[in-house]
Amino acid sequence: MKRDVIIACDFGSAEECLNFLDKFSHLERKPFLKIGMELFYSAGPEIVKKLKEKGFKIFLDLKLHDIPNTVKKAMKVLSNLDVDMVNVHAAGTKEMMSAALEGLTRADGTRPLLIAVTQLTSTSQQAMTEQLLIDNPIDATIAHYAHNAMEAGLDGVVCSPLEVGKVKESCGPDFITVTPGIRFADSAKDDQVRITTPALARELGSDFIVVGRPITAAVDPVAAYQRCVEEFLTEEEFIYNPSNFI
Ligand code: C5P
Questions:
Q1: Cα-Cα end-to-end distance for the chain
Q2: Which helix (H) or strand (E) holds 237?
Q3: pLDDT tens-digit profile of 147-181?
Q4: 117: burial class by Cβ within 10 Å (0-12, 13-18, 19+)?
Q5: d(CA 191, CA 16)
Q6: Which residue of the set 30, 49, 50, 63 is catalytic?
Q7: 36 lines ligand 1 (CB under 6 A)
């Protein structure tokens, strides 16, 4: 099983991101990074290319959600960036997810992992019911969206660690779960609602945890990253072995 801690690099510029990553340059384990909308919209594809050249694995978290043809063409462009993981919103329908997969697959058959966002971890049951008019319980909705993603041929979903059990039950143990909403027992919740600690995420069977502010806003980001690694990975995975990682 491939598992890892992914640092959400939610920075406003390439310079800020590169300065932050300099702190990690002495580590044997190169962190897996998530580049989201903020950094991609400000620094563009160049920052992705630069970080790939430096040897980082990249989850490009742009959460595509549009008509199938537009998503297919956009995915073709992202696939050329040679990232390791990209995503779409499952709410875009199975047709859109299949189109994304098609666009992402290169001529030689290779492609980055493709995962779907089910419900954002900042969304509460109340917001889902009152604002989105979805009456089903949040975990049933998430399991259903995950099943749609699996049927469309995707590799996994983004969900809260609290939903991993339901997702694996519905889609099987190999269906990847990438889980944000991670907080240390002693840190602030910020705007996240459905949160767990790295240790609980591991117990619940999460494959990848995505951690932003608990690392990026920490007084000592490297120590915070290492705390995540120690809590989330097993001892065998913790001892750096490249074959344990995608
Ligand atoms: O700072 P924090 O740890 O809350 O960052 C979580 C990251 O995961 C953010 O970049 C956010 O956009 C992303 N994310 C999320 N919930 C999802 C999908 C992505 O929090 N369902």
A1: 10
A2: helix 235-238
A3: 999 999 999 999 989 889 999 999 999 999 999 99
A4: buried
A5: 22
A6: 63
A7: yes
